[in-house]
Design goal:
Elements lengths: L32 H15 L12 H26 L8 H9 L12 E8 L7 E4 L5 E5 L6 E10 L2 E2 L8 E4 L10 E9 L1 E8 L8 E3 L11 E5 L6 E5 L13 E6 L5 E5 L13 E8 L13 E6 L3 E7 L12 H14 L6 H10 L8 E7 L8 E9 L5 E2 L3 H11 L8 E6 L1 E13 L7 H15 L13 H9 L6 E4 L12 E14 L1
Parallel strand pairs: 11-12, 18-20, 21-23
Antiparallel strand pairs: 1-7, 1-16, 2-6, 3-4, 4-5, 4-7, 8-14, 9-13, 10-11, 10-14, 12-13, 15-16, 17-18, 18-19, 21-22
């Protein structure tokens, strides 16, 4: 054998990394696909230096490495999401936020239907003391002006600003003494509430103490559920809705609560005989509720004009005599996270200004009205126990209006049993500072064919910026903050507000509301 002058060695074959040392080559900080792939390659090079050296993308080994990196990246993301969704501050999924809030006794609200004043006009004067509108005559179907789809409105009787209690057959009874005219042919103590009326009846056959009724249709509109119990005893009659049975004052309270699931199906739950009354076995019930809700129900006045037949032998016309406002989608994550901590702190009583503010901002009347509010105390001597609540009523996601007297009265009645005895509450009208906005948006010339799409994105961001939930009393308009919001759109290179020279400052009882806006597109 002739020596060639070269010394070869296969010492790498003798370098075997023990199993208990392999973990030292693992990078536990890797979280994304690229990092996982690169660290796996480094691991293979360190632990299997001779077994595998073909690190090209077309190789089968690289495919297996990338598949492993793919699985690791998915698991890493899910682990991060699970950690994120486990805490209220970082959770984003509505169902997860809903479950977290239920742990502390706070419920997210369902969709809210728009409402309008209504008028019934009989074709001939009534000659009977009472006329009846059957349940099957209470709902009217029209086309939504927002999307052209089917839209239902249900007729209700209003008593002192509140929806009248349900009757045993879900019909409406109107007395001649309640009519507006001497001829007994016109009634205006009515309201049209958005949503299709559903009537369900049955009896309790379950011997368990806590009785429940699972409603068959969804989404159930917030505060639309009414229950009538018939058992021939003190439990007979219309039962009262409460947010939580835990706030019942005793075993004789005929009350119920409504719980939503993740798909806005609802379950009616009754008391256990200690916290609220418990209906007996074989007790019959009638439940009415509405399904629908959302912003698509907002209407102009006199859009609804429909004929109905009265069993007593009359016919009539029912129309909405005011605009229908207040329709909202189910409570958003942002709104719930903003007010839920304050609601939890209230513990069903109102003491601090935060208590009054959060209660007024989350309260929903029987007709579905909600508001925007701020509570303050007076600074004059001897009047520190007077709480002024500056209030506006919500008309849409971007519009507020002056609160109706019925809304103010309803809110005061809800506050009364929760306030301290020495605290006096006064409802004051808030002021709306309307704003007209002219904005110029600059985009690249090659994006001109997409102008309408980009303008639509700008409009969406603008309306979201001025959403009622994003503006509180006393909050100023910061132009730089508005511009940064528009900058989030990838296609926008630059934007300016043309008709405002400086930020808009407001008083503590004022709130800014977008009125008209113009978006100009400029190409650069």
């Amino acid at each position: 054998m002739v020596f060639t002058g070269q010394v070869t060695s296969d010492f790498l074959k003798l370098v075997n990394i023990p199993d208990d040392k392999k973990s030292e080559f693992i990078d536990f900080a890797a979280t994304d696909f690229i990092t996982f792939r690169d660290r796996l390659i480094e691991y293979v090079k360190a632990v299997y230096p001779l077994e595998y050296q073909n690190f090209v993308e077309s190789d089968l080994g690289m495919m297996l490495i990338e598949l492993a990196a793919y699985c690791a990246a998915v698991n890493s993301l899910k682990a991060d999401m699970l950690a994120q969704e486990a805490y209220l501050k970082t959770a984003k999924n509505r169902n997860n936020v809903k479950k977290l809030l239920e742990l502390i006794g706070v419920k997210m609200k369902g969709p809210i239907g728009a409402s309008a004043n209504a008028k019934l006009t009989l074709n001939t004067p009534s000659l009977v003391n009472t006329i009846t509108i059957p349940a099957n005559q209470r709902t009217v179907t029209i086309s939504s002006p927002e999307d052209g789809g089917q839209l239902n409105y249900t007729l209700y009787k209003v008593v002192n600003g509140n929806i009248a209690d349900i009757s045993s057959d879900a019909s409406l009874s109107l007395g001649v003494s309640e009519s507006d005219s001497s001829t007994s042919s016109v009634w205006t103590n009515l309201a049209y509430l958005e949503g299709s009326l559903v009537v369900e009846s049955g009896s309790f056959t379950d011997s368990q103490t806590i009785k429940r009724i699972l409603l068959s249709q969804s989404p159930v509109i917030q505060n639309s559920v009414q229950v009538y119990i018939t058992d021939g005893a003190s439990l007979s009659g219309a039962w009262r809705y409460v947010d939580s049975l835990f706030f019942a004052s005793g075993a004789g309270d005929n009350i119920f609560e409504v719980n939503y699931d993740d798909n806005l199906n609802a379950t009616v739950t009754f008391g256990d005989g200690i916290l609220g009354s418990s209906p007996g076995v074989n007790t019959s019930y009638v439940v009415t509720y509405r399904v629908g809700g959302g912003t698509r129900g907002n209407l102009q006045s006199e859009v609804i004009n429909t004929s109905i037949t009265i069993p007593e032998g009359y016919t009539g016309i029912v129309e909405n005599i005011s605009i229908a406002t207040g329709g909202q989608d189910a409570e958003s994550v942002e709104h719930a996270k903003k007010y839920a901590p304050y609601t939890f702190k209230q513990q069903d009583r109102l003491v601090t200004l935060e208590d009054f503010t959060s209660f007024a901002n989350t309260y929903v009347t029987s007709v579905g009205a909600t508001g925007k509010a701020r509570a303050v105390t007076r600074t004059a001597h001897g009047s520190a126990n007077i709480v002024d609540i500056y209030l506006l009523q919500r008309a849409s996601n971007t519009q507020l209006q002056q609160a109706t007297n019925a809304f103010k009265l309803d809110l005061l009645q809800a506050i009364e049993p929760k306030r301290l005895m020495n605290t006096k509450v006064v409802i004051v009208d808030g002021l709306i500072r309307t704003l007209d906005l002219v904005m110029t948006v600059r985009i690249d010339r090659e994006l001109k064919p997409k102008e309408e799409i980009i303008k639509g994105k700008v409009q969406e961001e603008l309306l979201n910026f001025f959403n009622v939930d994003n503006f509180d009393f006393g909050k100023s308009l910061n132009i730089s903050e508005l511009n940064r919001t528009i900058f989030k759109i990838d296609e926008v290179r630059f934007c300016t507000v043309d008709n405002l020279d400086s930020d808009i400052l407001v008083e503590m009882n004022e709130i800014i509301q977008l009125n008209n806006f113009t978006i100009n597109m400029v190409y650069v």
